[in-house]
């Protein structure tokens, strides 16, 4: 089997025996849980669209491992064209869901681990690359969701892993056996983990020799013994437990993050892709972060398209669409959004082949892309709230709107331009609330700030990649300064 349908994906999640906790209780059936299900629906769209002929070119690719058609989310980029298509695919999915669709972290992990394992093997004569490709061929063949896991809790940020008061604050190898390793620790803010079949772990920072037990990369199924998840809260999450769909803003789709705990998890050797090669930890982090910073030049742009559309429609429903300052603000939103997209496309088009044959984005441009993402969605959201007006946060509930006596007052006093149903106006205002303050704001705003690294992490890479000496030389040459 190669490509699963959305429904097959959802059914496959039921086969796992995963351990999820929410509000202090074990969730027996995560697939049908009303708070979790919208996030599963979002991942399912990565399957749905892959099966639609019009999106086949973006959502699927020919595997360099097997020669078969696979979902692009499991593909190793073989050209700059692949890198560009990845960004276009992410924009499309952002447009279709309005949320984080979660499957990219695995794709970004595959591509970074592929090239780094090749380079580790070159230096140390290990066999990680071959192991990893075997694992990936299995993932492609079964069209699975794999969650890339990088971020450790990190405890005291001023201390390296081995100097922390609690040695588990970075995930580490606690035992080495003949048949594999045992790991302990946690990964935080783990996007889409409950909706994944497997988790692919990477170190979180560059390391020195004394931290070598922390330099580890491996994959295990999400129902591996000792692995469990504590579900992350999102603003307004319990609205998903209510009847009706207006107040949810985006009832069908959502994102997901969870605290992921590895409580002495065994990993067989064939699933270990880095084991104490601490000198490669930094390279792996840099490449994974680079790919995920590229990703945001696609997904956040697609979500931005939805927000801009909702804002323009609300302006129309309010009768202000022709006001020049509204037109200006909408243009500003588009300008910001397309600037992000330009960066996503540029770092892809300027990508390069690595030694393993897998293509890597241009790191400088990917970091510029993500640094813009730490700012522009906030400005787009600010403009959306400016145009939408205060009603988006003062609206009565759907229950009041549907109430036999109160409903007619809500209908009458909350209508905008005559002829436009009040309900349509309410739905769009709730969508804007959802995207700028509610559940989807986790993905559109806070994740834009901190996902794939906080702004300072981009500045560090930009400083490293900027080649300032070359720029000085250019100036010296023009004014005749000899060096
Ligand atoms: Fe994909 Fe964007 Fe979500 Fe990251 S934040 S997993 S790139 S949708
Ligand atoms: Fe992310």
TrEMBL record:
Residues 281-479 form the HpaB/PvcC/4-BUDH C-terminal domain. FAD binds at residue 191. This is 4-hydroxybutyryl-CoA dehydratase. Residues 5-274 form the HpaB/PvcC/4-BUDH N-terminal domain. Keywords: FAD, Flavoprotein, Oxidoreductase. InterPro entries: Acyl-CoA_Oxase/DH_mid-dom_sf (IPR046373), AcylCo_DH-like_C (IPR036250), AcylCoA_DH/oxidase_NM_dom_sf (IPR009100), HpaB/PvcC/4-BUDH (IPR004925), HpaB/PvcC/4-BUDH_C (IPR024719), HpaB/PvcC/4-BUDH_N (IPR024674). It comes from Thermanaerosceptrum fracticalcis. One of its GO terms (molecular function) is oxidoreductase activity, acting on the CH-CH group of donors. It comes from the Bacteria. Gene3D superfamilies: 4-hydroxybutyryl-coa dehydratase, domain 1 (1.10.3140.10), Butyryl-CoA Dehydrogenase, subunit A, domain 2 (2.40.110.10), Butyryl-CoA Dehydrogenase, subunit A, domain 3 (1.20.140.10).
């Amino acid at each position: 089997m190669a490509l699963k349908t959305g429904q097959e994906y959802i059914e496959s999640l039921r086969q796992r025996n995963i351990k999820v906790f929410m509000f202090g209780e074990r969730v027996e059936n995560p697939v049908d849980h009303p708070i979790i299900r919208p996030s599963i629906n979002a991942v399912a769209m990565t399957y749905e669209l892959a099966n639609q002929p019009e999106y086949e070119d973006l959502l699927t690719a020919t595997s360099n491992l097997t020669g078969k058609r696979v979902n692009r989310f499991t593909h190793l980029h073989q050209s700059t064209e692949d890198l560009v298509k990845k960004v276009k695919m992410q924009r499309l999915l952002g447009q279709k869901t309005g949320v984080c669709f979660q499957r990219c972290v695995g794709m970004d992990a595959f591509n970074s681990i592929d090239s780094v394992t090749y380079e580790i093997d070159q230096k140390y004569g290990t066999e990680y690359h071959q192991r990893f490709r075997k694992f990936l061929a299995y993932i492609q063949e079964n069209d699975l969701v794999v969650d890339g896991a990088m971020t450790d809790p990190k405890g005291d940020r001023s201390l390296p892993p081995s100097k922390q008061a609690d040695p588990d604050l970075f995930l580490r190898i606690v035992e080495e056996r003949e048949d594999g390793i045992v790991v302990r620790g946690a990964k935080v803010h783990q996007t889409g983990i409950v909706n994944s079949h497997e988790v692919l772990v990477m170190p979180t920072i560059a390391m020195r020799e004394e931290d070598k037990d922390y330099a580890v990369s491996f994959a295990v199924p999400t129902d591996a013994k000792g692995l469990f998840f504590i579900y992350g809260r999102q603003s307004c999450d319990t609205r998903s437990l209510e009847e009706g769909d207006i107040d949810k803003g985006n009832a069908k789709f959502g994102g997901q993050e969870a605290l992921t705990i590895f409580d002495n998890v065994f990993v067989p050797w064939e699933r270990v892709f880095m084991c104490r090669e601490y000198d490669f930890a930094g390279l792996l982090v840099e490449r994974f972060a680079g790919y995920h910073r590229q990703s945001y030049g696609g997904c956040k742009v697609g979500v931005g398209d939805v927000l801009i559309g909702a804002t323009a429609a609300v302006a129309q429903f309010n009768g202000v669409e022709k006001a020049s300052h509204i037109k200006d603000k909408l243009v500003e939103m588009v300008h910001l959004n397309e600037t992000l997209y330009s960066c996503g496309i540029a770092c892809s088009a300027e990508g390069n082949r690595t030694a393993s044959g897998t293509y890597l984005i241009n790191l400088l441009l990917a970091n510029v892309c993500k640094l813009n993402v730490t700012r522009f969605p906030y400005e787009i959201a600010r403009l959306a709230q400016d145009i939408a007006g205060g009603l988006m946060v003062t609206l009565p509930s759907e229950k009041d709107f549907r109430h036999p006596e109160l409903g007619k007052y809500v209908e009458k006093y909350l209508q905008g331009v005559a002829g436009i149903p009040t309900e349509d106006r309410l739905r769009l205002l709730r969508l804007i609330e959802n995207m700028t303050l509610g559940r989807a704001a986790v993905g559109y705003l806070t994740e834009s700030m901190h996902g794939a690294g906080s702004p300072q992490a981009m500045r560090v890479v930009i400083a490293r990649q900027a080649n300032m000496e070359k720029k000085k030389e250019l100036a010296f040459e023009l004014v005749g300064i000899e060096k």
